[in-house]
Amino acid sequence: MSAMVAGAARAAQLLQHFRSLAEAAQPRHDLPAGAMNALQALPLPKRKQENWRYTPLPVLYEQLWEPKPAPADGMLEVGQVDALALNGTDGFRIVLHNGVWLPALSRVPDGVSVVPLDQALTAGDAAVGSASGAGAHLFAALNAAMAHDGVLLRVAAGLEQESELEILHINSGLAAGWLVQPRVVLVLEDGAQLNLSEQYLGADESDDSAGLYNGVTEILLGQGARLDHARLQNEAGQHRHLSALHLSQQADSVYTGTTLAMGGLWSRSEFHVRFAAPGAHCALNGFYLSGGQQSHDLQLNIVHGVPGCSSTERFKGILSGRGKAVFDGIILVQPDAQKTDARLSNDNLLLSRQAEIDTKPQLEIYADDVQCSHGTTVGQIDTEMLFYLRSRGIPRDQAVNMVCKGFAGEILQTCRSEVLQQRAEALLDRQLAGVLAGMA
Fold this sequence. Notes:
- The chain is an alpha/beta fold.
- It has 8 helices and 21 strands.
- The chain has a domain at about 5-275.
- The protein starts with a helix and ends with a helix.
């Protein structure tokens, strides 16, 4: 049997496996009902599809991923969570272990309500699925069709001060081939404010199990709401991470988000932004670090459908070894979206000849009174900059480190959480140390 025939047979087997999993879940609410139809109609993503063209897919299809069992009581201890949390024992946090909310290890601030996702679905809460729909591709539809794990968060309007919260997504204690599919729905009522940090990680850095995180986040911002949102993806070495963020913004709302993709073997982060009323602003920042055999994929779909909204998207990446990254970003300005201001940029620094970046920033404009721009750069470390630093007595390794940290710093500094920023810088230092050791 040829490799092509074997690959097609494997894909057909995996597709049927996913459909069987969804049917066995026996959903009791409306969101999975629509997703089941999508799941039956959608194929597995293929490189022939434009927004999957450069994504390394074989690593995603090598296992028949199986839903994990519910975590047993006592698998995580308070001390473990305190060590992983950004604010130790003092901060407000939501803990999701293998996708399941653990109220006993969580601490919620005043003005924020938390409801388990299955309870919100059973009650028919209209917020769930309103930003994402049934799913644009098979993995999104699979999450919706099997929707059960996760939480619905609501931030009340009229609070005297901004609330601060962390969401910890901890995946641990699982056998190879595990599948975790939580959904987080966040609703900020009119005028509400929240500073939100998220971490995706394992309880043990030595975890070498191959697993797939397939998560969805829906964010609904009411009129005048403000959300600062920082995310660090630092999954264990063999984990696959697939996440989709769906953002809907009402008039005069402001979203500032920073996504840092630094862990795992393979990741794909999607951003879907829709402006529902004039005056809203969205700022997306991102940094990815790909080394060894890692692959990170970032997909942006920003739709300006109403007038008077603005968006900025700034993404940077550092690649070493045989690291690979994909950046595919599109800004769509529809005919009614006059007075749109949209800026998109992607810059990449390659530390080896084997590293690969596929970057495709795009503008699609159907209105004439707009200010829009896009651009991308790909290059190696500037030899003149290195010469300048070394001529002042700075060792070569330290000079390279300084250049890389300066390059990444513009994005890392957009994180409101200093602790999160420091953790990202430590991960960057560790990978750079390995790269420089190999170049010695």
